[in-house]
Write a structure and sequence with these properties.
It is built from 3 helices and no strands. By secondary structure, the protein is mainly alpha-helical. The protein has one domain. Helix 1 packs antiparallel against helix 3 and helix 2 packs across helix 3.
């Protein structure tokens, strides 16, 4: 058993902690964009941009830990 966390684990935690406020601040654009489309109007460009930022930040938040797990499994397998 080793002591402490590895550097990349600490960095990943910091990145995810930094992305969470972005998710919170851009989350309202999801509802506004979808509502506008359902009402048959064009959403504002700012809402579309925030929607994209929200989606890609979410993908990065979910994908990063999974890629780290794959990396660690491969690292342990090849040791």
């Amino acid at each position: 058993m080793r002591d402490g966390y590895r550097g990349y684990q600490i960095a990943l935690h910091s990145v995810i902690a930094g992305v969470l406020p972005v998710q919170y601040l851009t989350g309202g654009s999801i509802e506004r964009t979808h509502h506008a489309v359902h009402m048959g109007v064009q959403p504002s460009p700012a809402d579309i941009l925030q929607h994209l930022v929200h989606n890609y930040a979410g993908i990065a938040t979910v994908g990063s830990p999974e890629s780290i797990l794959v990396y660690e499994a491969a690292y342990q397998y090849w040791q």
